[in-house]
Design brief:
Number of strands: 27
Structural class: alpha+beta
Strand content: 15-25%
Distance between the termini: 49 Å
Helix content: 10-25%
């Protein structure tokens, strides 16, 4: 078993890393894998808009837009004529849309030498950008919408929520200056009626946003059964971006993005392409790009020559996790949380210099393996059935190895005040019929890099671990690899390093209520280099136990955050040397209200720390910081907070082990000020009962009372959900 895992690791580690593949190209499945049912594609015609007798829904007030393109044809001048309808979220017709409120783009899907399932979009509507800042010295073509030409097409309002838009652009009569620049750059802007074309719309000036698109082949008018390009799903982007909203917030769908962000668009100032498959990979890798590691920068110049520097951006998970963004039936594996697309497997099937070089930007393809003049030979080494295939080279071998380890707490006994808890547990291999590991002898556990601990914390109302015998508020820990006793049936038992506090020892405070036991750690397997081990994080598990609950049953800690929400962006949470992994219930045992770091003179209370971390400017949180539901449970962010939530310690006083002389912030103030940290917000909090300097006793005795929920409580005038605009 161990040799097998080691060999898997060795094979992957010696593989040449190649980048995310496909020039936006295709494939509906990996070789040898039968496709599942086809993913949904195309627009579903909505019901006809409801036309009220009076007071139609004003466009400028529409919180939600439902837009649908019903037809696109070309007139005698080869101008696209677009029919579409627009309603609000209730299906009520919007009848006051003007030409100033909409942008239209039109592009064609060009083919690729790699095959019919690959290709790239090319816009017909372009402008010429002259370099003004940065390192660029040459003019470059950029895709855009029609406003660039200084004239709109013609918008006809039928008065019932349906509209007709005629493009100003003739697909067969593009401006000569544009054609000349395209020729310089080797771009083909010819009208090709037998290829798939796309029209997409951007709506501006309303709270609601929409980007409907329409794909069709002009020569036949066909919309079904045609070749299109569907690499990434917006829903997958929104797992982190919450929501994707670029260029002022009006561009929210990948289908719209790729209409302009194609291979024919370049930032003249930085000389960097803004082709989607290159730009997105590069900005997500950011600080870890080889060119940036060597002292360079990755920048794009935007509106009014604003410089957007992605050189300090750190992707919040393993960059090799390609399926998180683009995935099809052949690469999805056992994931059920992703939206599949028709060409979502292209990254694994059609390697290209553009896509691969976007992450591996230190590779000179003119010299790589004798020189690669084009992409035609890439698959000879990096195809799906090759040793150095893209998918094989992007395997996350340590993450795969984690699947062979699973811990379980079987029982926690002897947990009353003054008693020393005993934990019975086992670690098994789910890939081998749950065969238990011999943690005292198996090499993966006897390795010097291995670690396995059983931790204990109290009380679940809000952890403080008072009486832990330490000057900090951490949980207590037993070393299972040294102290475990073999039960003879594949399970082990470990005693806590001290009894549950009964008040007989300093600081004289007994533990009450319930506590928790946690198993955390990591195994270790051989790596590629001699005497170098790879740490394999063990997913932490926990079990609550009663200390003195009246009914003898344990009281679980409140759940304010869903781990799945964290993993949507992070994929996995691995901290503290690979010991504390994928368990919020483990994190909060130490990151509790009383844990104040004397080294940093700062609280590491979870409700403060996590908000502060995600709100830092240098973190570049990709989602909407005001959307508490991005992390929290439905009731995990609302006011009032649970009565058991403690104030956050900001000074430990003279006795580091005794919480009674701590200086604390009141609970709601601690949470809210972790994001709203300016002086005006602080004054608002203190004027409404909050305190940045009080004691827990004063809070418990009612001498200090936060009145936040009077206005910000659920259902109140300034409910947190309302102020934060949470759906």
């Amino acid at each position: 078993m161990f040799k097998h895992m080691r060999n898997c690791l060795l094979v992957g580690l010696v593989g040449l890393l190649v980048a995310c593949g496909g020039s936006g190209g295709g494939g509906d499945r990996a070789p040898g894998v039968d496709p599942g049912p086809p993913p949904p594609g195309g627009s579903v015609p909505p019901a006809q808009p409801e036309i009220p007798e009076s007071s139609p829904s004003p466009y400028a007030e529409a919180e939600e837009l439902l837009a649908y393109i019903s037809d696109v044809t070309l007139n005698d001048d080869d101008q696209a004529v677009v029919k579409f309808q627009l309603t609000d979220g209730k299906g009520v017709a919007i009848t006051d849309l003007t030409a100033d409120d909409v942008y239209f783009v039109i592009s064609k899907l060009q083919g690729s030498p790699l095959g019919k399932l690959t290709g790239t979009w090319q816009s017909y509507v372009n402008s010429i950008e002259d370099p003004e800042v940065g390192t660029g010295t040459e003019s470059r073509l950029q895709a855009s919408f029609e406003f660039i030409y200084g004239s709109w097409g013609e918008l006809t309002n039928d008065g019932n929520g349906t509209y007709i838009y005629r493009f100003a652009t003739s697909l067969t009569d593009l401006p000569q200056t544009i054609l000349d620049q395209a020729a310089v750059e080797g771009l083909n802007l010819d009208y090709e009626p037998d290829r798939t074309h796309r029209v997409a719309i951007q709506f501006n000036g309303a709270p609601g946003k929409a980007n409907p698109n329409y794909d069709w082949v002009p020569v036949t008018g066909a919309t079904d059964g045609i070749f299109t390009m569907d690499i990434a799903a917006t829903e997958n982007c929104n797992r982190c971006h919450d929501p994707l909203a670029i260029h002022g917030g009006g561009r929210i769908e990948i289908e719209y993005c790729v209409s302009c962000h194609n291979a024919g668009s370049t930032d003249a100032d930085s000389t960097n392409t803004v082709d989607m498959k290159v730009m997105i990979h590069k900005l997500h890798r950011g600080a870890n790009l080889p060119s940036v590691q060597d002292g360079g920068e990755y920048v794009i110049y935007g509106y009014k020559n604003s410089k957007h520097d992605y050189s300090n951006l750190h992707y919040p998970q393993d960059i090799r996790n390609c399926v998180n963004c683009h995935v099809g039936t052949g690469t999805v594996g056992d994931r059920t949380d992703l939206v599949l697309t028709n060409q979502g497997d292209n990254w694994a099937e059609y390697p290209t210099a553009a896509a691969c070089g976007s992450c591996h930007d230190d590779v000179d393809f003119d010299r790589h393996k004798g020189g690669q003049p084009d992409d035609s030979r890439c698959s000879q080494c990096h195809g799906p059935d090759k040793t150095y295939g893209v998918e094989n080279s992007h395997r996350m071998l340590v993450q795969e190895a984690r699947e062979a380890f699973e811990a379980e707490i079987l029982a926690v006994t002897n947990t009353g005040p003054g008693e020393t808890p005993v934990v019975n547990f086992k670690v098994t291999n789910p890939l081998n019929d749950d065969e238990p590991y011999d943690i005292l002898n198996d090499p993966v556990w006897t390795n010097s890099s291995s670690s396995l601990s059983v931790r204990f914390a109290w009380s679940t109302t809000d952890y403080t671990n008072t009486g832990n015998g330490s000057d900090n508020a951490s949980s207590i820990s037993a070393n299972a690899l040294e102290d475990a006793v073999d039960n003879g049936d594949g399970s082990y038992r470990v005693n806590a390093p001290q009894p549950i506090p009964d008040g007989s020892e300093a600081p004289g405070i007994a533990a009450t209520g319930s506590g928790v036991a946690v198993i955390e750690g990591r195994s270790a397997i051989e790596g590629e280099e001699e005497d170098v081990s790879e740490r394999v994080p063990l997913t932490n598990v926990h079990r609550f136990f009663s200390i003195d609950e009246a009914d003898g049953g344990p009281q679980e800690r409140r759940k304010s955050v869903e781990l799945e929400s964290c993993l949507a962006c992070h994929s996995t949470l691995v901290f503290h040397g690979g010991n504390r992994n994928d368990s919020i219930d483990d994190c909060v045992t130490c990151h509790n209200p009383r844990y104040f770091s004397t080294r940093n003179s700062k609280s590491v209370d979870f409700k403060v720390l996590i908000h502060e971390l995600h709100g830092r400017e240098e973190v570049d949180y990709p989602g909407n910081l005001s959307n508490c539901m991005g992390c929290h449970t439905e009731k995990g962010y609302t006011l009032p907070l649970a009565a058991t939530v403690l104030g956050t310690t900001v000074d430990l006083g003279n006795n580091l082990q005794d919480p009674r002389d701590d200086t604390v912030m009141t609970p709601t103030t601690a949470v809210c000020s972790s994001c709203h940290d300016d002086s005006v917000a602080a004054a608002h909090m203190t004027s409404n009962g909050g305190s940045f300097s009080t004691t827990q006793q004063a809070i418990d005795d009612g001498q200090v009372v936060e009145q936040c929920s009077v206005c910000h409580g659920s259902g109140r005038s300034s409910d947190v959900a309302r102020v934060h605009d949470i759906p």
